[in-house]
Specification:
- By secondary structure, the chain is an all-alpha fold.
- The protein folds into 2 domains: about 100 residues, Four Helix Bundle (Hemerythrin (Met), subunit A); about 60 residues, no CATH class.
- Helix content is about 75%, strand content about 0%.
- It contains 10 helices and no strands.
- The mean pLDDT is about 90.
């Protein structure tokens, strides 16, 4: 079978799900679990003469693979699907399809087993910039949203009690106290 190079196009899968990485990983894992035995199941169904179920299995596998960005498997499924539907048998080169199913499952498993990249270290320059922005906003009596406050506090290397004191002062709009705490730290 002529295999396109892309076993797993993660970016395409993400685009199908509006960038929801968690959902994509969940669906890929479900695919892996669901189709891990597809080779054995398909061979058994054809051997038993259960061509409707064999066709349904390969047709569904093909569609799901295409939607998740498993393009090599999607394309390799087409001749297997046609052979089951039209010839009531598996194609002569079924072994290459079977190997591709295993390769695809292994790629999904490897993706799921890969650790999340570590969060980038906060450099002193980033922390200094956040501190300066924070103090400037406080001195200008600007409204500071909770998300902005959380972001600034997360990059500053401050003791927990100092962070809490700053957060309390900002919540109470006591910006002078927040400035004192920041400048002391």
């Amino acid at each position: 079978m002529d295999q396109p190079a892309t076993v797993l196009d993660f970016e395409f899968g993400m685009s199908q799900l509006s960038g929801n990485k968690t959902l994509l990983l969940t669906l890929l894992n479900k695919f892996s679990d669901e189709y891990r035995s597809a080779n054995d199941d398909l061979q058994r169904l054809v051997k038993e003469g259960n061509f409707d179920d064999a066709y349904s299995l390969i047709h569904t596998l093909k569609g799901v693979a295409g939607n998740l960005g498993l393009f090599a498997l999607h394309h390799a499924s087409k001749p297997v699907e046609a052979s089951v539907r039209n010839d009531k048998c598996l194609p002569d080169d079924y072994a290459s399809f079977s190997a591709l199913v295993d390769e695809t499952i292994a790629a999904v498993d490897a993706l799921s087993a890969a650790p999340e990249p570590a969060a980038p270290e906060v450099t002193s320059a980033v922390a200094a910039q956040a501190r300066d922005q924070f103090i400037t906003a406080l001195k200008a009596s600007e409204f500071i949203s909770q998300s902005t406050l959380d972001e600034w506090l997360s990059v500053l290397s401050l003791p927990a009690e100092t962070k809490q004191g700053i957060e309390d002062a900002v919540d109470e709009l006591d910006y002078d106290e927040a400035i004192k705490l920041l400048e002391k730290a």
